[in-house]
C-alpha cells in the first residue's frame, strides 16, 4: 500500500520528472500497471467520508479564529471569470479587485490569482504587473477537454505565451472513465512539459467522476504525472466542490507527500460562495493535512462571488454590524 | 496539531440552564423531599458542586412504586393506546424544543462534549420517544399476539454514561406499552432525569406514570427488590447486573440486563483505511470511551498494522480534549474520580503486563477528572486490558493474520455486546458477522444508534433487547 513507503525516498519539494527514478515510476510503465496501482489504493467509504466532512463542518470558528480564517481565505482566492462574454474590460476590473479587494480597507489582503481564459491572460498580466497576484489561465479545451492532443497543447502554449504563470488544465474524463488511465497520464505529462515554469493545476471534474474512489484515483494519477495542484472542478458542472470530495483529495495529497516527499496543493472550485463554506474548508485542511497546507501556495479557492461575502464578513467583524451588497464592489 | 489556525474558545452558554441548589424526588407528579440524606452532584470538568440531590430511601421508593401502581391501574393501563401515544409525541416534541437546555445540562453533569450531547444524546432521546409513540396503538402488530399486555410497574436503573438517552431507552418503550415507571438515575448524573420530570409535568403526563427516585446503589436495590415491581430493567456494570439477577431470581419479575462489553473492531487489509481510522476513533473515544459497546479492542490485520497505527496516531493527535461546553471539544471529562481511578489502574496494569502505551501530547486542565486518549499496542489476548472493560478512552490493539483468527480473537471475551467489521468486501462482512457472537455488528461504521434497531448482548453483556420491535417484547406479555 501506498502509505508505508519511506518518506525519505525523495528529497522534499522536488518536482520529479517522469522517468527520474521517483518511487512510483514503475507504476506508469504500462496501462495494466497503472490500473493495478490506482485500483490498489485503499477505497473510500462514502458514508464515512461524508460523515467526517459533516462533523468537521460543525466546528465553531469565532472571533480571532474567524478573523484569521477570513483573511487567509481571501489570500487563497483564485478570482475567476470564465464566461463566453468576458472582455478585456471585465478582466481589468477583476484585476483591480484582485489587487485591492476592499477599496475602503487597505488592510484586506490581495487574492492569490486571477483566473481567466487563455486569450485574456495577457490583459490580466498587464493589469496585475507588480502586484504579486498570479495569473491563472484555463487550458486544454476547458471545460470539456474534448479536443485533440495537439489542440490542447496549443491551448496551453498560447496561455503560457500570453504570460499566464499558472495553468488550470482539465483531464479527459471520457478516457478516465473508460479506464484509459495511461492516456490521461501521458496527456498531463505532455501538458506539464508545455507549461515550462508555469504551475500546473489539474482539474479532475469530480462531478463527472461520480465516486470518491475515482476522485482519489484521479488525484493520484495527476500527482504521478507531475501536477502542482489538484483541483476539484471546472465550475461548469454540478456538483462542483463539496467538502467530502475535498477531504478525499486532501487525504490523497497527504499520503502522496508521505510516500514521495513532494507536496501538492489542493484547489476546490465552484460552489463555494459563502464565508461559512470557506471556513469549513479551512477547518478541513487544518484537521486533515495540517498547517503545512494553510497557505495560498498549497490551498486555493476557485471562486467569484465568494470574495464579496468574505469582505462583508470581514467588515462585520471590524465594525460589529452588517453592511450590504453595495458596500463591496461588483466584479 | 497546527499552531497556525488556533480555534478561539467557542463555549456554549450555560445561561440557558437553571440548576436549583437542591432537588427532591419526583413522585406522583410532584417534586417531594426525600426522607433520607442528600448527596452532591458535581461537574466532572471542574469539580464544582452543581446541586444537592435527595437520596431515596426504601420508604421513598415504596411511595413511588405505590404511585406507579395507582397510575397503572387507574389511568395509564386503561387509557386508549392512541392517547398514550399522544403523550409520548408530546414529550418527544418538548425534548426537541428544549434540546439546547438538555444538551448543556447533560454536558455539565456528565462531562461529555456539547457536540455529542447536542448532536447525539438529545436528538436520539427525542427519536426514541417519537419512535415508540408510533408503536403505542399498533402493539397488536408487534408479533406478540393480537393483544399483548403490559407488565405493570417497571423498575428501571440506568447508568451515568448517557443519562438522558438511557432514560429514553427505558421510559419510552415502557410507557408506549402501557407500563408505568419508577426510574433511578445514576448517582453522579441525576440532573437531566430531573429536568425530564419537569417535561413530564409540562406534557401533562398523568401523575404517577413516571416517578424518578434519585440516589445511589441502595436506592437502586430498593427499586429492584420492591415486591410490587413487575418488570426490572437495568443498564450498567456486569457486577451489579449479576447481583440484580440474583435478587430477582425466584420472583415473578421479568428482567432485562444491558451490561458491559469489550467489543472487537476488526480492520481487514482491504478496508477503507481513512474511514476505518475514523471508525476506530469514534468507536473508542466517543463519549470518552464511557460506552458499553465501545470498540475497545482493535483487531487489525497484520499486513496493515503499521499503516493503520500511524494514521490512527496522527488522527488522535488532532483530537481536542478539554472544556465539555466548548463546541469544538472532541473529548470531555471522565465522569467521576472513581472512574478515573479505575482507568488509571487498568492502564498501569497494561503497561506492567508489557503492552506499549501511547498518548498524544495534550494539555489537560488542572481541575476536574481527565484522561488523555490512549492506545496500547503489543497487546496480547491474555492481558487484562484485552479482557477487562476499561470504560474509558483506552484502546487495546491486537493483530490477526487470517479471518478465522480474527473471529476467534473477537469472540474470545466473556462479553458479547457489539463488534465492528471494516472491509470493502461485502461477502466478507456477511460471512464474518455471521460468526461473531455479539448483539450488534457494525460494518464499515461504529457506534451508530437508531431507535428502530434492537440493541443488546450475548453472554455477560446481558439479555433482552432494547429498541426496535424486539425491544417491545421486554415490556409486554405475549397474548395468544
UniProtKB/TrEMBL annotation, chain A:
Metabolic or biological pathway, per its Swiss-Prot or TrEMBL entry: Carbohydrate degradation; 2-deoxy-D-ribose 1-phosphate degradation; D-glyceraldehyde 3-phosphate and acetaldehyde from 2-deoxy-alpha-D-ribose 1-phosphate: step 2/2
Keyword Cell membrane: no
Coiled-coil intervals, chain numbering: none
SUPFAM superfamilies to which the protein is assigned, alphabetical: Aldolase
Any Gene Ontology CC annotation: cytoplasm
Signal peptide: none
InterPro entries (UniProt xref): Aldolase_TIM, DeoC, DeoC/FbaB/LacD_aldolase
Catalytic activity: 2-deoxy-D-ribose 5-phosphate = D-glyceraldehyde 3-phosphate + acetaldehyde
MF terms in GO: deoxyribose-phosphate aldolase activity
Region: Disordered, residue numbers: 1-24
Keywords: Lyase, Schiff base
Enzyme Commission no: 4.1.2.4
Pfam families registered for this protein in UniProt: DeoC
GO biological process terms, semicolon-separated: carbohydrate catabolic process; deoxyribonucleotide catabolic process
Enzyme class: lyase
Family: Belongs to the DeoC/FbaB aldolase family. DeoC type 2 subfamily.
UniProt protein name: Deoxyribose-phosphate aldolase
UniProtKB/TrEMBL annotation, chain B:
Record's protein name: Acyl-CoA reductase
Cited Pfam families: Aldedh
InterPro entries (UniProt xref): Ald_DH/histidinol_DH (IPR016161), Ald_DH_C (IPR016163), Ald_DH_CS_GLU (IPR029510), Ald_DH_N (IPR016162), Aldehyde_DH_dom (IPR015590)
GO molecular function ontology, one term from the record: oxidoreductase activity, acting on the aldehyde or oxo group of donors, NAD or NADP as acceptor
Organism: Geodermatophilus amargosae
The keyword Methyltransferase appears for this protein: no
Keyword set, alphabetical order: Oxidoreductase
Gene3D superfamilies assigned to the protein according to its UniProt record, in alphabetical order: Aldehyde Dehydrogenase, Chain A, domain 1 (3.40.605.10), Aldehyde Dehydrogenase, Chain A, domain 2 (3.40.309.10)
Signal peptide: none
Family, per entry: Belongs to the aldehyde dehydrogenase family.
Record-annotated active site: 258
Aldehyde dehydrogenase domain: residues covered: 31-477
This protein's record includes keyword Disulfide bond: no
